[in-house]
Amino acid sequence: MQTPESSLAEHPFLKDLNPRLITFLAGCALSTQFHKNQFIFREGEEANYFYIILDGKVAIELFAPERGSITIQTIGEGEVLGWSWLIPPHRWRFDARAIESTRAIALDGRCLRSKCEEDHELGYEVLKRFASVITSRLEATRLQLLDVYGAHV
Amino acid sequence: MINNIPEPMTPNVFRINKKYKETHDTFTIELEPTQGTDEFFFSPGQFNMLYVFGVGEAPISISGDPKNPKTLKHTIRVVGTVTKAMYRLKRGEVLGVRGPFGSHWPSENAVGKDVIIIAGGIGLAPLRPVVYQLISQREKYRKVVLLYGARTPEDILYTYDLEQWQRRFDIEIKITVDAAAENWRGDVGVVTTLIRKISFDPSHMIGMICGPEIMMRFTVAELQNCGVGKENIFLSMERNMRCGIGFCGHCQFGPVFVCKEGPVFNYECIENFFGTREI
Fold first, then answer.
1. What is the CATH number of the domain that holds A38?
2. Does residue B81 sit in the same domain as residue B131?
């Protein structure tokens, strides 16, 4: 049977992480499931968790008056959702909605922040991994902004 | 590959047999010759010079099935004077065709390997023939994956083909769009993000890429991050092709001519000047 600890150890986000730190992380972890169309979090709410996605698909959305909800990005198996738990003021900047039934490991941000303060090796590993995710998302967003498929004549 | 075309500068007259819209700014025409043989043989990845009489010529990739030489298909995006004139042509009207020109996708190098096809926007048009080809000889290849990125769900080309291919169990199709409303159930994000979502053997694969140059640059970088060697990456370049046979020099791309040595290049052959601003 899969435990949060074994799911964390197998997830690409935590690949090659020291097993001691996996065990440490598992202390803040909880298995969770979201049904289709369920909001995982909403813009402005306190960001107390982040999610290691095991399967399913989540849309990151922004609501614009008169345009409705606009999907900015989708996240699925093998990816990680949310970094606002890490950065003050710890509030979500976007909505996240499961667009398919989604299984995830929720990691308690408050618990993890205090563990990262206690154990700087863990803190550095977590920051390194999030820096990589943030960099690739920033790169992808820049490409999206370029509107490369638009007619540029 | 250079075709042995007897009169490469003389257009043959073809009649528009069918014309239909693909998206708000793209359409497909099906052509039949008005004289000579009724078959048009080409290799996937090659292009024709299409001539709207009295207006001008434009290089357009062949987007049909190479196994069906009786129907010559071109998918065209309405962006300039010539393509606007093509869009105004009606069924039964004629245009000039020179070709086929240029190199082709290396499906012969892909036998026994994973084949990852990555298309962006209208870049799916020159790749569709190779998908048809791979499917028709499916047993020759290992995993076949098509990753396709479009601007919005409304800009997705060949929806009928994509649905047919998605129903097959021997080809994996992943589609993403750059922007979508909440009713879109597929992926949102740039096409490069799909590469990490598939599994393939980086040491035993062939990557075929076509799309805007900037998209191809990031795609090549992502494939290389996944361990794919440059000798296994092929891309289709676009330049200002005019003569189609490497005489006029309009499509010079560093030391090569895109119309003659290309449009399909091995990345290893062009990496030194691919992405160079001055070229």
1. 2.60.120.10
2. no
Gap between the Cα atoms of B27 and B23, Å rounded: 7
Q: How many domains does chain B fold into?
A: 2
CA dihedral A82, A87, A90, A93 (to 10 degrees): -50
Q: Over the stretch B14-68, which tens digit does the pLDDT of each residue have?
A: 999 999 999 999 999 999 999 877 789 999 999 999 999 999 999 999 999 999 9
In-domain check, residue A78: yes
Q: Which of B64, B26, B61, B29 is nearest to B154 (CA)?
A: B26
When divided into structural domains, chain A yields a total of 1
CA distances from A27 to A30, A127, A130, B160, B242 (A): 9, 18, 19, 49, 66
In angstroms, the separation between the Cα of residue B82 and the nearest Cα of chain A is: 13
Residues B221 and B211 sit within 8 Å (Cβ to Cβ): no
Token pair recorded at residue B57:
């010529």
Taking contacts as CB-CB distances below 8 angstroms, the residues of chain A near B188 are 59, 71-74
In a domain, B194, yes or no: yes
Of B79, B120, B176, the CB nearest to A148: B120
- Same domain, yes or no: B144 and B92: no
ipTM of the modeled complex: 0.83
Note whether residue B2 is domain-resident: no
- Residue from the list B80, B151, B189 with its beta carbon closest to the beta carbon of A149: B151
Q: Which domain holds residue A43?
A: 4-146
Q: Do B128 and B80 fall into the same domain?
A: no
**Residue B269 belongs to a domain:** no
- In chain A, the largest separation of any two C-alpha atoms, in whole Å, equals 57
- pLDDT, tens digit (0-9, with 9 covering 90-100), for B11-26: 899 999 999 999 999 9
- Beta bridge pairs of residue B26: B23, B77
